[in-house]
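Summary of Year 1 activities. Much of the first year was spent building the evaluation harness for sequence design. The harness presents a backbone, in tokenized form, and records the residue chosen at every position. We chose the following record to illustrate the format because it has been used consistently in internal testing since the harness was completed.
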């Protein structure tokens, strides 16, 4: 006899959210399709995802510039506005490296090869970087930063500088936590049947990861890109009252020292804690509903 937490083998009624075991099967099957995309399409969709996440980062930066409320409220506001990025990825269609860590469910089920997974992750990661970096350049060239006494510029540099100073071990664990929440958001989206349901599925996990200060590799690609561009503007540096020495950590090397451990942490959090765990629960041999007893 099945417990209430174990879903029926029958499909969920139309209009209801998909049950967890149905979500697992959907994520596995979509993972197969993702790894079989042709490279030009995969790269183009990845560039879009990087741009979408960058737009969320841009809006999040603006939302807290000059904010006079409490720290907690400002972090929540940053999280809510950053959710725009993943909402665009999910609804408009794009390939995001961190979300694609769930492809591990298809791999663990023996439906795709290790080479196919690494090909997908590598192509999407590069495409995300191109999209995030190009969006940072466009935002910089559009010069919205010169208004309000460079308040938004200063916040953008402050974010990038803080990230560049996180110790590698800490960045790794912050990356684990961030992508566990991102992949849970994606997981919930696979359970939703409506646009509203998908938006709400994204909103709370993403707000949580941003508010709690966890580290997301693709978001950081944008934050470092815009931070490095703005660091070269003397008037912005003056507005933030930084000395040249105080900004030394904000560099290409500083960005890589953050991105490498954060990316590895993201893989552990997304592929291991979410994809691997749900594969073990619902998809491994011997884990079928009909074989379970209470």
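For this record, the design step produced the sequence shown next.
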């Amino acid at each position: 006899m099945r417990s209430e937490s174990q879903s029926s083998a029958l499909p969920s009624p139309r209009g209801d959210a998909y049950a967890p075991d149905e979500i697992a099967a959907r994520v596995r099957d979509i993972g197969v399709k993702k790894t079989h995309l042709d490279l030009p399409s995969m790269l183009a969709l990845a560039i879009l995802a990087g741009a979408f996440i960058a737009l969320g980062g841009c809006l999040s930066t603006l939302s807290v510039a000059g904010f006079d409320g409490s720290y907690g409220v400002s972090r929540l506001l940053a999280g809510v506005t950053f959710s725009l990025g993943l909402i665009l990825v999910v609804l408009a269609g794009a390939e995001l490296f961190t979300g694609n860590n769930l492809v591990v469910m298809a791999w663990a089920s023996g439906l795709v090869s290790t080479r196919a997974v690494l090909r997908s992750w590598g192509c999407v990661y590069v495409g995300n970087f191109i999209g995030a970096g190009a969006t940072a350049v466009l935002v910089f060239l559009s010069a919205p930063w010169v208004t309000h006494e460079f308040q938004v510029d200063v916040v953008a540099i402050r974010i990038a500088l803080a990230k560049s100073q996180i110790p590698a071990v800490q960045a790794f664990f912050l990356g684990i936590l961030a992508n566990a929440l991102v992949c849970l958001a994606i997981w919930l989206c696979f359970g939703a049947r409506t646009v509203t349901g998908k938006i709400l599925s994204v909103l709370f996990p993403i707000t949580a990861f941003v508010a709690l200060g966890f580290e997301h590799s693709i978001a950081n690609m944008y934050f470092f890109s815009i931070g490095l561009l703005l660091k070269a503007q003397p008037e912005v540096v003056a507005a933030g009252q930084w000395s040249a020495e105080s900004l030394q950590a904000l560099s290409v090397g500083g960005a890589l020292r953050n991105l490498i451990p954060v990316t590895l942490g993201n893989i552990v959090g997304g592929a291991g804690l979410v994809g691997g765990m749900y594969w073990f629960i619902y998809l491994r041999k011997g884990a079928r509903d009909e074989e379970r007893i209470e």
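Residues 20-286 form a domain with the Glycerol uptake facilitator protein fold (CATH 1.20.1080.10). Quantitative recovery figures across the full test set are reported in Table 2.
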